[in-house]
Amino acid sequence: MASLQGYVDHRVLLILQDGRAIVGVMAGFDQKSNVVLSDSKERVYSMDEGVEEIPLGLYLVKGDQIVLIGELDDAVDQSVDLSTVRAEPLPPIRY
């Protein structure tokens, strides 16, 4: 769990088992890797339109649903025009 401590108060991207991508500021976590994000948004990818961002606000993600956690570089992330990004949605992860 100590490895998640470095992400607290940083902007992160979570990829979940159902294929969703959630971006937000990590507010905290617990011993089961449950994560609390503040100012979070879901990014919905499409081949037909640009990336849609759906505001979620304060959001709790169960640790067993998280596939990946990565820190985002704010400057690089803000410089990308998401309306021009076209991508296939991520499929659900199966075990």
- Globally, the shape reads globular
- The side-by-side strand order for the widest beta sheet comes to 4-3-2-1-5
Strand content: 35-45%
| Poorly predicted parts | none
Q: What CATH first level would be assigned? A: Mainly Beta
Report the strand count: 5
**Average pLDDT over all residues:** 92
Number of contiguous helices: 2
What is the CATH architecture annotation?
Roll
Termini, distance in Å?
Answer: 23 Å
Please outline the major beta sheet.
5 strands, antiparallel
Oligomer: single chain
Subcellular location: Nucleus
Family: Belongs to the snRNP Sm proteins family.
Main location: nucleus
Keywords: mRNA processing, mRNA splicing, Nucleus, Ribonucleoprotein, RNA-binding, Spliceosome
Describe this structure in words.
Keywords: mRNA processing, mRNA splicing, Nucleus, Ribonucleoprotein, RNA-binding, Spliceosome. Belongs to the snRNP Sm proteins family. One of its GO terms (cellular component) is U4/U6 x U5 tri-snRNP complex. InterPro entries: Lsm8, LSM_dom_sf, PTHR15588, Sm, Sm_dom_euk/arc. The protein is mainly β. The chain has a single domain, classed as SH3 type barrels. It has 2 helices and 5 strands; from the N terminus they run αβββββα. It has a 5-stranded antiparallel β-sheet with strand order 4-3-2-1-5, with no helix packed on it. Strand 1 (11-16) and strand 2 form a beta hairpin. It is globular and about 40 Å long.
